[in-house]
């Protein structure tokens, strides 16, 4: 991880932000010929989850560079300013305040973590600024706290996401585990965070509905490194699968210690563990482990070919395979929305305070083919792209074994 971050050569200021462009447009220009539009990016760029966070940052950077190179919005120069939330809700909220308080920033992509998103949503809503997450999957972020009872209400009209929700991911994972992998008895562990706990509960619910048994449940804390007691419980439970709701930082150590104790059962998790870093740290113990992630493999999509080539050619740090494509598409939705707002205003971009609000409606009406699939949003701000993929570690690499969606 240290070497990856060193390669990135990120320069973070005290407030955790970084711009990729020295141009600081005021954001309130009414002349399209001199307008610089900054897109904010919030993600964990250091510490926990930074491999996937960096994938988000550089996914947006490639989209911005492509827009400028191809003159996608004539007269507008796009740039990004990245903010490091360190996967901490409090830091995310501070970043949201900094982003919305900067008149040169018109909209934002991020964050990575659902728990961080909860701390940011109200700040963005108060500023009437578009926020598109390429990775948040907690259902309540778009459908409200009572969604599970069938009462859905969108809390924030400025919040969107290009990743599908855990309501679909949990069922998709459970169905694969029970029907395809033939697992009948699961031990369920989560990290007590919004994303991890929510996904683990949904997996457990769907798994038992299918006829599976739960051998036990437990929790860990983010940052834990010694899982000896938990490993003993899992080993003695008779479970034939460990389902983990959380991120790769803890999952990779848990898998390694579980196999080291002689419990040779696969660990399965959601998109939070789908990272090359997971395999690098867990080593041979990761062989056979499973993960679900949003969309279909980006490497199989013809539209993403140039994106992947650019990412590799520039040696950008982080994992592009998890959310890179969805980050690119989120940024593109903002870029296209800027053009829509300008076209409706005689080819000129209104002052940033006005443009921000108009961008909300323009993003809501997004309808285009992105590099990771079709991009459009339903009445809740959720992506209409419900595809998911199950991956398994085979010979030290994540290999796609099944793509589809869940309609149960």
From TrEMBL:
Keywords, comma-separated and alphabetical: Signal
Keyword Signal attached: yes
Record CDD domains: PBP1_ABC_LIVBP-like
Positions in coiled-coil regions: none
Domain spans labelled Leucine-binding protein: 37-396
Superkingdom as given in the UniProt entry: Bacteria
Record SUPFAM superfamilies: Periplasmic binding protein-like I (SSF53822)
InterPro entries, A to Z: Leu-bd, Peripla_BP_I
The keyword DNA-binding belongs to this UniProt entry's keyword annotation: no
Family statement: Belongs to the leucine-binding protein family.
UniProt cross-references to PANTHER family, sorted A to Z: AMINO ACID BINDING PROTEIN, LEU/ILE/VAL-BINDING ABC TRANSPORTER SUBUNIT
Name under which the protein is recorded: Branched-chain amino acid ABC transporter substrate-binding protein
Species annotation: Streptomyces polygonati
Phylogenetic lineage: Bacteria, Bacillati, Actinomycetota, Actinomycetes, Kitasatosporales
């Amino acid at each position: 991880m240290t070497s990856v971050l060193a390669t990135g050569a990120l320069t973070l200021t005290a407030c955790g932000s970084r711009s990729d462009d020295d141009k600081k447009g005021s954001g309130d220009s009414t002349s399209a010929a001199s307008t610089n539009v900054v897109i904010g990016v919030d993600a964990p760029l250091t510490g926990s989850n930074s491999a996937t966070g960096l994938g988000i940052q550089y996914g947006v950077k490639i989209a911005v560079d492509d827009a400028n190179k191809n003159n996608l919005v004539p007269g507008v120069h796009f740039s990004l300013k990245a903010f490091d939330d360190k996967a901490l809700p409090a830091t995310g909220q501070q970043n949201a305040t900094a982003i919305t308080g900067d008149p040169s920033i018109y909209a934002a992509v991020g964050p990575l973590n659902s728990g961080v998103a909860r701390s940011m949503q109200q700040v963005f809503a108060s500023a009437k600024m578009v926020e598109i997450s390429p990775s948040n999957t907690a259902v309540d972020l778009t459908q409200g706290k009572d969604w599970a009872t069938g009462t859905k209400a969108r809390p924030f009209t400025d919040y969107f996401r290009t990743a599908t929700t855990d309501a679909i991911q949990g069922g998709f994972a459970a169905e694969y585990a029970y029907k395809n992998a033939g697992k009948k008895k699961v031990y369920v562990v989560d990290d007590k965070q919004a994303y991890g706990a929510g996904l683990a509960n949904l997996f457990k619910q769907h798994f038992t509905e299918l006829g599976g048994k739960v051998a036990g449940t437990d929790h860990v804390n983010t940052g834990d490194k010694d899982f000896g007691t938990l490993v003993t419980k899992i080993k003695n439970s008779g479970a034939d699968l460990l389902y983990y709701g959380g991120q790769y930082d803890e999952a990779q150590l848990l898998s390694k210690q579980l196999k080291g104790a002689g419990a040779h059962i696969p660990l399965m998790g959601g998109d939070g563990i789908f990272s090359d870093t997971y395999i690098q740290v867990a080593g041979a113990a990761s062989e056979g482990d499973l993960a679900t992630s949003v969309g279909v493999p980006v490497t199989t999509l013809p539209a993403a070919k140039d994106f992947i080539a650019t990412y590799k050619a520039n040696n950008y740090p982080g994992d592009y395979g998890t959310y890179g494509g969805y980050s690119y598409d989120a940024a593109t939705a903002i870029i296209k929305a800027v053009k829509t707002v300008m076209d409706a205003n005689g080819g000129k971009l209104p002052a940033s305070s006005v443009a921000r609000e108009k961008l909300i409606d323009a993003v809501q009406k997004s309808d285009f083919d992105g590099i990771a699939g079709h991009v459009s949003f339903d009445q809740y701000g959720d992506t209409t792209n419900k595809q998911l993929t199950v991956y398994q570690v085979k010979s030290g690499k994540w290999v796609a074994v099944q793509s589809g969606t869940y309609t149960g």
